[in-house]
């Protein structure tokens, strides 16, 4: 789960030219900038990206980009998560089976909650390989 | 860029992004625990530093810098507790840490919480130097 102030995001993108391209994919930018309260939607998407990374138990790790976690409108406007690049590769290695996200805005705040479902066999297998690798390197 | 200019640029970025006082943005203050920075604030700080120094650092570069190229499975164990090798690396980029206190207890996700204003200035200095060479 993540919560972010709409005003904080507005200040971030207003004071830092170019940061919108770092944070959002072209589809996300088109979606947000097409809305009347664009900063509110940007805040919602930023909170959703953070919530997804928290559900994965990681921050923005090595070689990961904010645009690797893309929030797009799905059926009936419900947000859906598309993973790309290093984040997609990381999730695949860990055995991600499904990821769901919901976003809400109110009182100047954007709140997002993400739920990740993992394939335990894939995770157990990964841990086993890492453990074996650790022993073999000694 | 002289080291004093670099630390001043970093402190100015921290003050601007977080709204803290110059005294609070002391070199030994940790960005997240002491100054309350969140990931959105780190982004803001890094963009401000880029504007004032020309040194471009992305959020994901921070973990790469701290990990120093050590593979994940050597940097921490299967429970993501930082290994001895990982602690040695962290001591290089965060000389203020007490590795004896952290040994066997430091979780990978908490490493960023130890990162100080001075550590960030050192990183900017290093990146600026390598960019200019």
Describe the protein:
- The complex is a heterodimer of chains A (138) and B (133).
- Chain A is α+β, with helices and mostly antiparallel strands and 138 residues long.
- Helices cover 49% and strands 25% of the residues of chain A.
- Chain A has helices at residues 6-15, 19-23, 26-33, 38-55, 85-94, 120-136; strands at residues 2-5, 69-73, 79-83, 96-106, 109-118.
- Chain B is built from 7 helices and no strands.
- Chain B has helices at 3-18, 39-53, 59-67, 72-75, 84-93, 99-102, 117-132.
- The longest helix of chain B is centred in the N-terminal third of the chain and has 16 residues, at 3-18.
- The chains are: A alpha+beta (138), B mainly alpha (133).
Main attributes of the structure:
heterodimer; A: 138 residues; alpha+beta; three-stranded antiparallel β-sheet; two-stranded antiparallel sheet; 6 helices; B: 133 residues; mainly alpha; 7 helices; 56% helix; 0% strand
A few lines on this structure:
The complex is a heterodimer of chains A (138) and B (133). Chain A has 138 residues and is of the alpha+beta class. Chain A has 6 helices and 5 strands.
